Amino acid sequence: MDFDAILQGKYPARQHARRVVDYIRSKVPDATGVLYLESRMTKLLEDNDEPEPFRQRRFFYYLTGCELADSYVIHDMDSSKTTLFIPPINPESVIWSGLPVSAEEAMQKYDVDEVKYTTDVNAQLAHVAGQKAKSTVFAIPNQVSEHVTFLGFDNTNFSILKEAIEVCRVVKDEYELAMIAKANDISSKAHRVVMERAKHAKNERELEARFLADCISAGARNQAYHGIFAGGKAAATLHYVHNNAPLKGKLNLLVDAGAEWDCYASDITRTFPINGKFTKESRAIYDIVLKMQLECIAALKEDVLWDDVHLLAHKVAIDGLLELGILKGDKDEILANRTSVAFFPHGLGHYLGMDTHDTGGNPNYADEDTLFRYLRVRGRVPAGSVVTVEPGIYFCSFIIEPFLKDPKHAKYIDAEVLERYWDVGGVRIEDNVVVTKGGAENLTTAIKDPDHIEKIIASS
């Protein structure tokens, strides 16, 4: 994908608005009126005169492509006209912050039909309401400023707009895929730099700093999430956040980190030996996880049931752990008893887009079946959706020891063989994949071939 060429155009906000309107009308026939959304508002830090770090509201961005704070948008459902309202010039703030984006500049930058200033929003709402009979304002609860009034409209609907955008966000258009590919390209290069620096680093935070520096220098100032830089046994903690432990004497480093490009996320995990050479045990686990991932990606295509792909990952894991002797007994019994959950406790992946754990996955965390309880995606995945495929095998004593004490599971685990694997910590490999009609396209280019990884680290 030539993502840089695609990104020369505008974010397709009006196309998104039409998609949202179609969804609303599929649920509310003959719906007429306007969609109303607000951006994130500037808010000062508590006990401070500095603003909080800004993160644009994803619902607003989906209909505008606008990253500005303190803004509004109105989309007329009948005329398909989108009007963006941006802050006017405040002479008192110009001396501190410089000139803001003008209406003329905003028209050139964003895919909207008209740009006005926020001082006009109530007048524009009243004007639109006066032209429409039996019209409705569709908005999101708790995302309407107190000074904004919907007088003149016959109805307000605060129930369906959020749902509509969440569902529409699942299937990405070409421009959105290009932004995710761009984020992946920057992040993949930063992952390689971390591999090259690993054996010279003394502390996890040095490698986190290196990753951040490379992303920022490539133009991606924001991370999609707080990265994980976990050395040794810390890699068995799924969402390890400390990133401040010494690396001396530890086998592997697990790096789960991804940059964001214009509000669109990447989410990549790589696990590698800090000194450049996998131990026998580490390589054996790595090979199992890589096989899990490759077979799951190969199974992806339009309308595949995500539960089935996750189940496939467990079957591959069980086969691999049986071969190593960590598991013992009949593989079908092991699967039926859910003993493999001790080593692979999380879901295979999740939707990816404007959020790392993107909308539309319909998880069921109350599922009594422990194999599927933590899946963030349930149901069939459509073409055009982006999913992470991130199998893992972990040696976390807090999780595994209860299995060892439970006769139902203990008979399938060889504790003596297991003893050799605790220092591996955990291995996870994660790529970002576009589901297509007949298969899948991998957007992640970070190196994962184990022999290639060893060569990179050894030569650094």
UniProtKB/TrEMBL annotation:
Entry EC number(s): 3.4.11.9
Single GO biological process annotation from the record: proteolysis
Domain Aminopeptidase P N-terminal: 11-145
Catalytic reaction annotation: Release of any N-terminal amino acid, including proline, that is linked to proline, even from a dipeptide or tripeptide
InterPro entries documented for this protein: Aminopep_P_N, Creatin/AminoP/Spt16_N, Creatinase/aminopeptidase-like, Pept_M24, X-Pro_dipept-like
CDD domains linked: Prolidase
Keyword list, A-Z: Aminopeptidase, Hydrolase, Manganese, Metal-binding, Metalloprotease, Protease
Gene3D superfamilies listed in its UniProt record: Creatinase/methionine aminopeptidase superfamily, Creatinase/prolidase N-terminal domain
Gene Ontology molecular functions: manganese ion binding; metalloaminopeptidase activity
Pfam families recorded: AMP_N, Peptidase_M24
Cofactor(s) for this UniProt protein: Mn(2+)
Protein's job: Catalyzes the removal of a penultimate prolyl residue from the N-termini of peptides.
Similarity remark: Belongs to the peptidase M24B family.
Protein name, per record: Xaa-Pro aminopeptidase
